[in-house]
Amino acid sequence: MQKRGSLARDAKANFSPARRRRGLQHPGEGAGPLWVTWDYGAGVSPAGLSSEEALGCRTGVREPGVSCVLCSHLGEEGAAPSCPGLRICPAVGGVGAAVWQCGGSMEVLPCSRVAHIERTRKPYNNDIDYYAKRNALRAAEVWMDDFKSHVYMAWNIPMTNPGVDFGDVSERLALRQRLKCRSFKWYLENVYPEMRIYNNTLTYGEVRNSKASGYCLDQGAEDGDRAILYPCHGMSSQLVRYSADGLLQLGPLGSTAFLPDSKCLVDDGRGRMPTLKKCEDVARPTQRLWDFTQSGPIVSRATGRCLEVEMSKDANFGLRLVVQRCSGQKWMIRNWIKHARH
User: Fold this and answer.
1) Smaller CB count within 10 Å for the chain: N or C?
2) Ranges of H-type helices in the chain
């Protein structure tokens, strides 16, 4: 299969009225929703198209129905529901990537119709979040190779003892080997290069301070520029990622180039409060770099000051984040992928 270019560029070229009428082959539809595997429930148009463009090439296909067809492609006819080991119909992105890896392709057929008949009783209980995570982790463990950590990061759960029993995947791994499927790296390079790569992550998860038990580092208001301390809840606003480059980023992952990425914590040396900025917008790159070790301080490489917590009647919950002369406060982060080399 020849190497693909930008999906967004290909999409706008491919979705011409003539091609819509006769059907077309386009990698974006198979790859575009893969972010569902990373961050279930986020919203983005297929292949980076605007909402208008996406509506202009309707397929009449619902994701669960497509997923069932894809599972058949992978040698799983008769599976219920959809795929062995999955408790709900899988996110089409996770299985769609597998189709590409195993020599198939995803196609947009605008005149096709796929029916999806709802069951009167669902085969899972009301906690769909648990089963969505379970499916995502199964797909990650079987198909994503060294990139599987991205799924755990997106859900903000540990890679060891994640609290989700995703079952035995040995048969799925054997199927992949039997079909001689390509690597996930090949998929990223040839089908969906727009996906962001976070393989330089050393550690991720909730970050707590020794002086503020029960409170976690939080991105605060989504459109704001101030990190805060907030009661720990483990959701994506409290996802902190520390990279081998020394970046300390807060908030949900921007899993594709079509979504905003998490912001960098910055000490510009001008005030006592750290700011959050788009990493590429930081004037001096060293202002966004930090040194961090487990149960140790978080130190700005630009100023030598420490990220610390101070008591304040004016702050939410009486706690304020500041950068100041180091006083010995310690920070703990939940999950380590690999330890930094010093």
Assistant:
1) C
2) 7-14, 17-22, 27-31, 35-38, 51-55, 63-73, 92-101, 128-143, 149-155, 170-178, 184-190
